[in-house]
User: Fold this.
Amino acid sequence: MKRQALYSGSRRTAHAPPAGTRPGSDAPGFQSPAAPLPAPGPRFGRIRAFAARHAGLLRILGGAVCAALIGAGYLWWQPRPYTLTQEDIDAAVLHTLRNKTLPSRAAKAADIVRPSVVRVRGFGEPPQPKGKQKAKPKRRGGKSGKAAPGNSQAKDKSDPPGLEELSVGSGVVIVDSGVVLTNLHVVAGAKRLRVTFHDGMESDADLVSLHPENDLAVIKAREIPDDLPAATLGSASRLRPGDEVVAVGFPFGIGPSVSSGVVSGLNREFRSPEGDRVLTQLIQFDAAANPGSSGGPLVTMQGEVVGIVTAILNPTESRTFVGIGFAVTIAVAGRAVGMHPF
Assistant:
């Protein structure tokens, strides 16, 4: 009996579907072709038309959106700023105080007013001795101490020839054109006045006005340095006993010298040693003042001039400082020289 072949080497041919069978039916061996896509609707067509018309604008908007997203991501990943607490501030201040030496309040106040402080010298003819009597000693500083022992400085080359230094004191610039406020007893009797500014420049000065009732005088320098600053003038009405003050001047012609202390009292009176005048409404202070300090400024810790150093109280003949000084208030000085209010 002939064996039936398991595999056939002939090529298989596709058989047509049986008659009456429609394409896509489930007839065995029939594969239906893919169905065509539906035609786009009217809305989709409008979107495509809009995109085609505005392609450039859409690219720009897309780029902007991408850049915004990148920037937002960058900012998101940045570390958040640290918020300082009071403990951090206290720790920083304590560290500074431990590791740095800060300037004193008095030093800062003196630095503010120092460019406006001048040395004032009065010159006149030397006294002539009578017979065998000795010449009278020079009057240096007036009420802040007469007859200072000796001459603390050698004669300057710029001193007027034929004249002798009769007095030395201090002054403060109150107008940047070279107007200086000082004491009357510093300039009284002088035939020639010279002032020395903070940068060492010297100039002759003219007497502008005298105010004997307050022991004040106004002088004006003939030449001034560039950018000469006027002092900042304040009010003594806010002063209280115990407030810190600084006196800047030229005691015995040396300076500018700085001394610090406190306000000891207000509305004091002082009678000159000669007894010819009583000064009122004075500031009493204990910052050191000596002959030559007269006319210098009394300054607050804010660098404001609240008084003009005028006198010291010393019951002995030495007329040196023992702890009690007096200053004319800047308000009184302002009324006297016609520059009120300050």
Observations:
- DSSP finds six helices and twelve strands in the chain.
- The first helix runs from residue 42 to 53.
- Residues 132-142, 145-153 have pLDDT under 50 and may be disordered.
- The helical segments are 42-53, 55-77, 86-99, 105-113, 184-187, 330-337.
